Amino acid sequence: MRIGFLQLRSKFGETKQNVKKAVSLLNRVSDATVVLPELFNTGYLFKNRQELVSLAERVPEGYTTSELKKIAKKKNLNLVFGIAQKSGKKFYNSAVYLSSKGKIEVYQKVHLFDREKLFFNAGKSLKVISTPEAKLGMLICFDWIMPEVSRVLTLKGAQILVHPANLVLPWGQAAMKTRCVENGVFGVTANRIGTERRGTLNLTFTGGSQVIGPRGESLVFAGDRSESLKVVEINVEEADNKNITSTNHILNDRFPTLYTPLIRKGRSKK
Ligand code: ACM
After folding, report:
1. Domain extent listing, the chain
2. Using CA positions, which residue lies closest to atom 3 of ligand 1?
3. What angle do CA 251, 111, 79 make, to 5 degrees?
4. Which of 11, 50, 123, 246 could, after both became Cys, cross-link 108 (CB 3.0–4.6 A)?
5. Whole-angstrom Cα distance, residue 190 to residue 34?
6. Closest atom, ligand 1, to C-alpha of 169
7. pLDDT tens-digit profile, the chain (270 residues)
C-alpha cells in the first residue's frame, strides 16, 4: 500500500484557508493513505473555551470533513486528519479516518497535553480501524508518551500507528521510532511546522514528519522548515512478523502477570 503524510503550517482560526491549502496539496497525490496533523484545520493554541466552541465541527456534517470527502473521492485517497470535534455537548481533540468511499471513523484523543485539559474532554477508548489495506492504530500527538497505548493498539491488531501531531517537545519523533521497534509495526507521524502566537502564548511545532518501518527504519521524512507531502510504498505484512530473532517474539515473549502495576493509576507501593 501507499502511505504518507502532509506536513502543514496552519493559521489559527483560519479554517477555510487551512482546508483549502490542504486540498490543493492533496491534489498532487492519488491512490494513497495520507495522514494530516492534529487540529490542522483550526490551529492549536486556543486562548479560551469560547474559541474552541466557535471553531469545533461536527463529524461528518462539518465543513472540513465535507470538503475532504470530495478530494478523497476524486483522488482515491484515504485520509486521517486532526480536528476539533463537537459531539453532543462535548468537545474532543479528534482524528477522523475518511476513506475514498466515504467511510468515516473517529478517535478521540485520550492523553491531553497541557492547556488542552482546560478545554477538551478526554477520549475514553483506544481505537484500531480495519481498512481494506491495513489495520490502523490511532494515536494523537501526546498519546506517544504512554507506551501502553501503542502496545495495546498492537495487541488489538494494529499494523500501522497513525499519528496526527502538533509535536512541540523535541523527543516525540524519536520516541515514535521506539514505539515502532518495540511493537514491530509501521508508524506515520504527520506534524506541523511554524510558530503560533496568541497573545502571551506561543508554541513552535517541530516538523520532522515521518514514515517508520517495523524495525525503526526511516522510510521517508520531512525537515522542520517547509510544508511537505510524501508518500511511500510499504508491504504492510512486514508488521505481522514479530520475530526479532529466531527465538524472540515481541508479543509472545511478554510476561503479562509481571506487569499488573500497569492496571493501577499512579506509582505502585512495592
Ligand atoms: C500535543 O499533544 N499536541 C503536544
Report:
1. 2-243
2. 166
3. 80
4. 123
5. 9
6. 4
7. 999 999 999 999 999 999 999 999 999 999 999 999 999 999 999 999 999 999 999 999 999 999 999 999 999 999 999 999 999 999 999 999 999 999 999 999 999 999 999 999 999 999 999 999 999 999 999 999 999 999 999 999 999 999 999 999 989 999 999 999 999 999 999 999 999 999 999 999 999 999 999 999 999 999 999 999 999 999 999 999 999 999 999 999 999 999 999 999 888 766
Distance CA 129, CA 107 (A): 9
C-alpha of residue 265 to centroid of ligand 1, in Å: 22
Euclidean distance between CA atoms 231 and 207, whole angstroms = 16
CATH code given to domain 2-243: 3.60.110.10
Rounded Cα distance between 11 and 21, Å, is 11
Residue 216 zone, left/alpha/beta (φ > 0; ψ -120 to 50; rest): left
Residue type, 202: N
Residue 255, class by beta-carbon neighbours within 10 Å (0-12 exposed, 13-18 middle, 19+ buried)?
exposed
> Is 141 one of the annotated active-site residues of the chain?
yes
Contact (Cβ atoms closer than 8 angstroms) between residue 106 and residue 131: no
Question: Which whole-number Å values give the CA distances from 93 to 69, 103, 261, in the listed order?
Answer: 20, 20, 28
Q: Which of 57, 116, 141, 196 is catalytic?
A: 141
